[in-house]
Amino acid sequence: MKEQKRSALLEKKQALLHEIRQSTDIFKALADPVRQDILMMFMIAKRMNVAQVVEQSHLSRPAISHHLKILKQAGILDSLKEKTEIYYSLTLENSVIDQLKAVIRAAESLSNDPAKSFEEHT
Hints:
Blueprint: H1 2-22, H2 24-31, H3 33-44, E1 47-49, H4 50-55, H5 61-73, E2 77-82, E3 85-90, H6 95-111, H7 114-117
Antiparallel strand pairs: 1-3, 2-3
Helix pairs in contact: 1-6, 2-5
Protein name: Regulatory protein, arsR family
Domain HTH arsR-type: 17-111
GO molecular function: DNA binding; DNA-binding transcription factor activity
């Protein structure tokens, strides 16, 4: 029985590690204060192009483009080209939110496991 509990606990640890690793791009994108500021801009504005983001920032156009690219690669922003401009907006899909919820569920499952409280570290 004790071995089964340890095996289940190990599975939960592996599940949490898997979810964290699946979310690495999201965490990296959200870790930067500049990208956090950009994200807050999109919480207010439905969509913006690079120039509009630059207007609200102290950074150069190339720097903003770089940050927008990282947010897009992480699945946080989406882009749509209209004529010569690219407009960015928050992703309409919930994939980022679903991924973060999966991390939380895996962490809660591990944290709430009764076998964890009494596991000895040797």
